[in-house]
Amino acid sequence: MARFIGAILGAAHAAANGAAGSLVDPFFNNGRVARILGDYWTGDAAQNDVVSLGYVDWSTRFDALSTIEFDDFGTAITLDVGVASNTANSGAGAVACLVNAQDVATAAGSASLLKSVAITNRHKPLWQLAGYASAQAARDATASDGGRAELIATLKGGDPTAGTLSWRVYGSPQ
């Protein structure tokens, strides 16, 4: 019978001192998972309007518990979730680095905050998901925002109808 462990845990174990090494997941070494943001917005938006979900540190690692819930916003409307485009790295796809083109036109529903993040990348901190070279580079690029990342949701497509967007973001600041 084979015994398997995850790739991240396995790398941490391999780097430890042989068989005596710890099998503690490095994802949680610097903090436990907690709800870090949660709110809702109800209103009538226009095409490309942005809803601020809040600010987090660039070293935050998001948990799969994080969700975005939405009403039916009308015909041909999609939702992107990522970091604000006023950063120096906005060209790296950062405005949709977490959720890209979620259909919010067909019906009300929900999606994981990490919907567009590959499973093999879900353990990475936000600065890596947004395409920065380091956490410090991300903080420097957002110095006007206190060196923090503003998570945003952007309604795209046609002219959205009124609706509600809610979010619960869980993660671990490292």
Question: Main beta sheet, described?
Answer: 5 strands, antiparallel
Helical content, roughly?
10-25%
Give the CA-CA distance, first to last residue.
36 Å
Nearest-integer average pLDDT? 76
**Uncertain spans:** 1-5, 19-28, 86-92
Q: Any idea what the shape is?
A: globular
How much of the sequence is in beta strands?
A: 25-35%
- DSSP strand tally: 9
How many whole angstroms does the radius of gyration measure? 18 Å
Question: Any overview of this molecule?
Answer:
The protein is built from three helices and nine strands, in the order αβββββββααββ. It has helices spanning 7-15, 126-129, 135-141; strands at 34-43, 50-56, 61-62, 67-70, 77-83, 99-103, 109-112, 149-157, 163-172. The strands form two sheets. Strands 1, 3, 4, 7 and 9 form a five-stranded antiparallel β-sheet that branches. Strands 2-8-5-6 form a four-stranded antiparallel β-sheet, with no helix packed on it. The protein is globular, with a radius of gyration of 18 Å.
Layout of helices and strands:
Blueprint: H1 7-15, E1 34-43, E2 50-56, E3 61-62, E4 67-70, E5 77-83, E6 99-103, E7 109-112, H2 126-129, H3 135-141, E8 149-157, E9 163-172
Antiparallel strand pairs: 1-9, 2-8, 3-9, 4-7, 4-9, 5-6, 5-8
Produce a short descriptive summary.
With 174 residues, the protein is mainly beta. 11% of the residues lie in helices and 33% in strands. It has helices spanning 7-15, 126-129, 135-141, and strands at 34-43, 50-56, 61-62, 67-70, 77-83, 99-103, 109-112, 149-157, 163-172.
Core attributes:
11% helix, 174 residues, disordered N terminus, single chain, mainly beta, 5-stranded antiparallel beta sheet, 4-stranded antiparallel beta sheet, 9 strands
